[in-house]
Specification:
Number of strands: 13
Distance between the termini: 53 Å
Largest sheet: 4 strands, antiparallel
Radius of gyration: 22 Å
Order of helices and strands: HHEEEEEEEEHHHEHHEEHEEHH
CATH class of the largest domain: Mainly Beta
Length: about 270
């Protein structure tokens, strides 16, 4: 009876956040400097990573050498979990966008602890479900929304809009090539829309690698699809105004005006609002 009571008390006292914040058997803290590779596509899997501090970029490369960005991870995110599902090799590459502090948990330790501690299993399952919903939203975004809306959504997600209840967030500034990969468009279109957002006060650049995103950028995501414009006015060196034409989409892609008019899936706009 005493032994059973001790085990029950230990289970009640288990805190998954403490487990992911401390080192122990099979758990080690690892640090990576900015622009350092954490693992490369094709490397053998060796456990799971938990982001304690910093930004991590996940990407994949095709056989033809074309690279695509899967996502940008931040504090509280897991990655490299493919090995838990039986994958023997990493299906993507992970790069430290900033100086990163990570917790590495060996596969056997993570699997055993999740079996013994329901709180850790629930936390991990909640994260996977939330990320699965994000991937579904990403697919819907690619199918139905214009490049401008997709870029606005990526910026808002990176700023974790609404999570901390603030109107403006500072995020790590990515290259326009990386943003184009995440949005699924060309670098010229990303440049065009970023300039538009800046002129409208939705974003502003800071010294160094910071970019400020204002919550008013949400207006771009929620705007009426019929109101999408393909030009905006800019000032030339002589002080005159002229219209800047929106760069063309990739050859073979439908025009953004046509994409944006397509009806969204049921409940999409309700979730966005």
């Amino acid at each position: 009876m005493v032994k059973q009571h001790t085990i029950s008390r230990r289970k009640l006292d288990f805190d998954p956040h403490v487990f992911l914040a401390t080192i122990g058997k099979g758990r080690s803290k690892v640090s990576f400097q900015k622009k350092t590779s954490i693992f490369t596509q094709g490397d053998p899997t060796d456990g799971i990573f938990f982001v304690k501090k910093g930004k991590v970029r996940l990407s994949v490369v095709s056989e033809a050498g074309k690279e695509a960005t899967l996502g940008i991870l931040s504090e509280g995110d897991f990655f490299g979990e493919g090995g838990l599902a039986g994958q023997s090799a990493c299906m993507s590459s992970a790069l430290a966008l900033t100086d990163c502090a990570l917790l590495h948990v060996e596969k056997e330790v993570m699997m055993r602890t999740m079996r013994l501690e329901p709180k850790l299993s629930a936390l991990f399952m909640k994260y996977l479900l939330r990320r699965n919903i994000r991937y579904q939203d990403d697919l819907v975004d690619q199918l139905f929304n214009s490049s401008e809306k997709r870029l606005a959504r990526v910026l808002l997600l990176m700023a974790q809009f609404g999570k901390k209840g603030v109107s403006e967030m500072s995020i790590h500034r990515l290259s326009q090539e990386t943003m184009a990969e995440m949005v699924g468009t060309t670098r010229s279109r990303v440049s065009f829309f970023m300039n538009r957002f800046r002129k409208m006060g939705f974003i502003k650049y800071d010294v160094g690698d910071s970019l400020h995103v204002h919550s008013s950028l949400l207006n771009v995501v929620l705007q009426d699809d019929d109101g999408v414009k393909s030009t905006f006015k800019i000032k030339t060196a002589g002080g005159r105004s002229r219209k800047a034409l929106e760069p063309p989409a990739k050859r073979g892609d439908p025009p953004d005006r046509n994409r944006a008019r397509r009806p969204p899936l049921p409940g999409l706009k309700a979730r966005q609002r």
